[in-house]
Amino acid sequence: MDADGFATHSREMSDLSLRGGIRHAFIEAHMFRLKATGLFDKLIARPRVHFVYLHHVFDDEIPNFRRTLEEIQKTHQFVTYSKAVELVYSGQADKPYVCISFDDGLKTTYRASQVMDELGISGCFFVCPAIVGESDRGLVKRFAETRLHYPPMDVLNWADVEDMIARGHEIGSHTYSHPNMGEVSVEQAIDELQLSGDMLRKRLGGVKHFAWPSGKWENFSAQGGKAVFDLGYESCASAIRGCHMPRSFAAGRRDVCLRRDHIMGAWPLHHNMYFLARSVLVNSPNDYEWPDSWKPIVKRNRHPQDEPPAQSGNRLSFSAPAT
Asked: What are the start-end ranges of the E strands in the chain?
């Protein structure tokens, strides 16, 4: 930690609990079995579209982050996030495709984007406009404590974001201020989606993709999923592990909730690769769908008589969300 209590090293984000140790041992044992039986190589070579994502890449994580990308590149074709989305919608994955994204808009991801440039890889960076460019470290710390729930880190500024776009990376929406979208009202959820989209379009000229904070089903809602597409986003991504296998039919935007596998630069290379193989091993025919109870709502197009979402101010607030 630095003098302001901001994380500067991967060890400050590590899970050193008993649960973390058990998880580490499980991955080691399972990966050994996959390798010993030859199943790992077969799984990793399966045609599919695979989304992986990270939150941070500290300086001490850079070497292993690079090795992970190089290892994936041996057996997969990296594509842009937009191309990966297109492939999922079409169902026509004829080889292992992979794309990479980052959540929360942390400053360390700027260096990660430069490493990716060196390898010819384009990524998508999901940001919260309310905090982009914030120089008040007290406010950033409060944001981390109340919204991110992990140690504070410096955040990207608009010049960083614009430079990444100029170098071929994409910027996505991660809501306006990173609330738990499963706890806010429908009106607040729509406001978060619209404010984020409006600001990103104003500052950057456009935004196509959305990923909701924390990424689990309990952190979102069917009404939130519907609003994503009502407001013009082209895709919606979770943080639920999985991948997207080829299909014999195309799917519409509202049919698809993207799955993404979380990896970390600090994890051993074979742990990151394990998660890619495991997602192939446990995939199911409905690996792209919303929960059954959500489908009628998410897939219902907005009717012309629907009133537009309410507007609100753009001052960042960290008060407890309404329930």
From this structure: 48-54, 77-78, 96-103, 123-127, 170-173, 209-211, 235-237, 261-262
Give the gyration radius of the chain's Cα atoms: 19
7: part of which helix (H) or strand (E)? none
Amino acid (1-letter code) at residue 200: L
Q: In 3D, which of 295, 299, 283, 291 has the Cα closest to residue 49?
A: 283
Q: Using alpha carbons, list the distances in angstroms from residue 314 to 90, 162, 179, 241.
A: 37, 21, 14, 33
C-alpha 293: how far from chain center: 23
Q: Which residues neighbour 99 within 8 Å (Cβ) at sequence distance 6 or greater?
A: 49, 50, 51, 52, 78, 79, 80, 81, 83, 84, 122, 123, 124
pLDDT digits (tens, 9 = 90+) for 173-217: 999 999 999 999 999 999 999 999 999 999 999 999 999 999 999
Distance CA 244, CA 48 (A): 5
Assign 117 to helix, strand or coil: helix
Torsion sign over Cα 77, 78, 79, 81? positive
pLDDT-based confidence at 18, cuts 50/70/90? low
CA-nearest of 118, 210, 117 to 167 is 117
For each of the domains in the chain, give its residue range(s) and CATH number, in order of start: 46-276+287-298 (3.20.20.370)
DSSP string across 70-89 = HHHHHHSEE--HHHHHHHHH
11: exposed, middle or buried (Cβ count in 10 Å: 0-12, 13-18, 19+)? exposed
Q: Tokens at residue 180, please?
A: 């738990």
Question: Residue 296 half-sphere exposure, CB side, CA atoms within 13 Å?
Answer: 1
- Bridge-based pairing of strands 170-173 and 123-127 is parallel
CB atoms near residue 221 (< 10 Å):
21
* Pairing status of strand 48-54 against strand 77-78: unpaired
